[in-house]
Amino acid sequence: MTDAAIPSEDDNSANPPGQEQPVCRRCGTQGPVGDDGFCAACEKALEQACL
Questions:
Q1: Cα–Cα distance between 41 and 51 in angstroms, integer?
Q2: What pLDDT is recorded for position 20?
Q3: Is 26 exposed, middle or buried (0-12, 13-18, 19+ CB in 10 A)?
Q4: What is the distance between the alpha carbons of residues 20 and 37, in angstroms, rounded to a whole number?
């Protein structure tokens, strides 16, 4: 038997799988995005462009 350290399961606690920050589809900013994939600023800009 070897004395190698056994990696603990807590090593991935900083970046749990499936918890990636969403990215805006228009500007690429990480943060909260709406159902369409755009941040609040881009969503507002797209609404203004449609007027």
A1: 16
A2: 81
A3: middle
A4: 14
